[in-house]
């Protein structure tokens, strides 16, 4: 039997999905599992997108252009213009979700062994794409007590070596919910410019900004126009995760051509998903207003609820729909599994993502979990109740840390 | 401006799509371009698949399981059983087209620098996936005068080194239309077993067998159950190229687990495409009978027509919907471009794929082109007329080779 590759062996399992078998077993026992582990919103997909699918009048489901339908790319360019991002349809390649944009971008930008700095905690799948492309992820720690703000320039520069070729940010942030300020982004721009790095900006949560916070795209930063790669997706924007439609956006012609060749090799992005995504461009503003209002309420229920539990701390995020919470526990993997295997409260339990998967060194996330507030308010209230209860009966509860106590004061 | 990667620079442009700008210019001049360059059939997608899309009754377009919907995988396993391929739904991962199955398979099986033997001419995009995974493609020449049959074992063994880790076949073949015989496959099995290699079998044209020819899947070969990877796709089977639904199938548990982790990183295959593909499993046999009958007629018009042109030779394929023809020309790239730039016959011209893109050494394909007979019969008749005419006026016409003349005798 031939051996699989080192990459195949090293590929990390998804921290979001690895507990699925335990959740399935819990459901078989009759326990209702509240899924806070995955960013799969229950928000309805816009009717205008679903109608485009229901009204399909094609006889042959053909390939599209490898870069995606031109009409959709033109529509996307208009959408970006409304968000102060000036690009043409010839600077956009439609991809199989944001995932493919990340993988193609890494393959086209980096040699095996090149280093990519990513502020952590970060979206766990960045590790997988980096591993596939042979890229070395260099984490830059951000701290829960600072609300996961971007560290000072000196901390970036301390990590830069001759192999450093890029920085990757997620803004608004998954898992932190952080929206970077103008000042943070300008510092980042200076580093990118001074060291001539690629800057990958994963902005798939662009629409999800709360409390009057405004999102600033990396594509608007002056002086690094050739360095920035925008990674985008319709998954969260229109609650259409299954459409698998994303975008790779760059003004760098060499890079665009290289990624287009990768896109040609896989022929085309999905036709149905593109039809839905193009139609979704006409989603009325009210849809987003309603969604934002809903998420603010959900966030407040979850985050305020968490912070009211003794020993828990959770900075209140103003973007995306995740939060990272620090819990008074010994090990978040053990705790999350225990919740599914050995706990229930009034017939319910909670599934969360251990934060160990969001740090390069898993041990860093041992007392943290990521929660997605993508479910209706009653369920979130129930989830907080479950957690409060669980933290009184879990055998691995430890005393809250000093930092945590002071933060709660 | 940061430099892109070596892979990004080396990635080959698609031989199928690189002439697109010339075709667009021809169309702007009012010339009708007959597209024989790309395997995009005009055959209608089964109604049962389109109906599943039109009758969509979901409110949220969610992710599916990373391996694809279980119901679809169970249905696929039943479909395979009908084709003598015994696998369970837990040996199938639904992918973004056959393309993703190839890329994930190469990443999970091979170290950078490992060697993969591919009989040539071969589907050009194999080069791109190999390059992305850092795999070295080792071509094994097959000959037009032998109908592109698989070379003897000794020719394989002459190419095997300590870095050889796999063999990739396409059966029925793109671009050759070749269906491998039982004898050819058993020889291949022995090589795979004796050298403990991975065998990638791209069988996306399984349904397209003519003249009573039967397709034998590599999955049925005894003694190499842990070595075989089946690459599949609904693109051609149901004329649903844009659905972007393929499959990675293996009985090797280690390999399955590694590819599943890659699949988890990109979250899920497309939901709409899977709904259409699952419904398409109920496509009546008559649909396939009609399609096969149509393709046989198309093939005969094209291949017989080509062979009737002085100096042209084209083995009649009994599978897929491509053929490779040898033409009395100096350079197939120049000729194919000239057809689009400088030629028209009664308002028409022909677009073909130069075979240079289907050989590891482009020069090998300088007198060959690949043609896809995926258009209605009148257009194919017209295409043959155009080619006959073009071969009297193209400035680079050369005398037919000896081999070619003898073959026509």
Descriptors for this entry?
homodimer; 409 residues; alpha/beta; Aspartate Aminotransferase, domain 1; Aspartate Aminotransferase, domain 2; 7-stranded mixed β-sheet; 3-stranded antiparallel β-sheet; 14 helices; 12 strands
Short description:
2 copies of one chain form a homodimer. The first copy, chain A, is α/β, with parallel strands linked by helices and 409 residues long. The first copy, chain A, has 2 domains: 6-44 and 286-408, Alpha-Beta Complex (Aspartate Aminotransferase, domain 1), CATH 3.90.1150.10; 57-280, Type I PLP-dependent aspartate aminotransferase-like (Major domain) (Aspartate Aminotransferase, domain 2, 3-Layer(aba) Sandwich), CATH 3.40.640.
Radius of gyration of chain A equals 21 Å
Q: How many E strands of chain A?
A: 12
Distance between the termini of chain A: 60 Å
- Which percent band covers the strand fraction of chain A? 5-15%
Query: How would you spell out the order of helices and strands of chain A?
Result: HHEHHEHEHEHEHEEEHHHEHEEEHH
Q: How many domains make up the 3D coordinates of chain A?
A: 2
Helical content class of chain A: 25-40%
CATH superfamily of the largest domain in chain A: Type I PLP-dependent aspartate aminotransferase-like (Major domain)
Number of helices of chain A: 14
CATH fold name of the largest domain in chain A, please?
A: Aspartate Aminotransferase, domain 2
Mean pLDDT of chain A: 95
- Biggest interface, and residues per chain? A-B, 83 and 83 residues
């Amino acid at each position: 039997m031939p051996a699989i590759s080192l990459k195949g062996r090293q590929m990390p399992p998804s921290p979001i999905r690895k507990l699925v078998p335990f959740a399935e077993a819990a459901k078989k026992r009759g326990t209702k599992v509240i899924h806070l582990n995955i960013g799969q919103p229950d928000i309805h997909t816009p009717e205008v997108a679903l109608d485009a699918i229901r009204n399909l009048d094609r006889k042959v489901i053909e390939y599209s252009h490898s870069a995606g339908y031109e009409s959709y790319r033109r529509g996307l360019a208009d959408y970006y213009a409304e968000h102060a991002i000036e690009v043409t349809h010839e600077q956009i390649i439609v991809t199989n979700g944001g995932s493919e944009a990340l993988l193609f971008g890494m393959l086209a930008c980096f040699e095996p062994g090149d280093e990519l700095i990513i502020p952590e905690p970060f979206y766990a799948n960045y590790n997988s794409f980096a591993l596939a492309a042979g890229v070395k992820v260099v984490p830059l720690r951000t701290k829960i007590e600072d609300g996961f703000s971007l560290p000072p320039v000196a901390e970036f520069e301390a990590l830069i070596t001759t192999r450093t070729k890029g920085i990757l940010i997620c803004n608004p942030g998954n898992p932190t919910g952080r929206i970077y300020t103008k000042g943070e982004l300008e510092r980042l721009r200076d580093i990118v410019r001074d060291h001539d790095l690629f800057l990958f900006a994963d902005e798939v949560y662009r629409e999800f900004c709360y409390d009057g916070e405004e999102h600033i795209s990396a594509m608007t930063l002056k002086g690094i126009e050739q360095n920035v790669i925008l990674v985008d997706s319709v998954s969260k924007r229109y609650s259409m995760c299954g459409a698998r439609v994303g975008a790779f956006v760059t003004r760098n012609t060499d890079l665009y051509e290289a990624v287009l060749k990768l896109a040609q090799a896989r022929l085309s992005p999905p036709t149905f998903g593109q039809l839905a995504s193009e139609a979704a461009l006409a989603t009325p503003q009210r849809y987003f207003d309603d969604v934002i209002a809903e998420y603010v309420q959900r966030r407040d229920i979850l985050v305020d609820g968490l912070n009211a539990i003794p020993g828990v701390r959770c900075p209140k995020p103003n973007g995306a729909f995740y939060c990272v919470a620090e819990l008074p526990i010994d090990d978040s993997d053990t705790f999350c599994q225990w919740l599914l295997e050995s706990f229930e409260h009034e017939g319910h339990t909670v599934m969360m993502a251990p934060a160990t998967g969001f740090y390069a060194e898993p041990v860093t996330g041992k007392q943290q979990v990521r929660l997605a507030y993508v479910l209706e308010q009653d369920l979130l209230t129930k989830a907080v109740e479950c957690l409060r209860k669980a933290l009184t009966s879990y055998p691995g509860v430890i005393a809250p840390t000093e930092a945590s106590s002071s933060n709660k004061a």
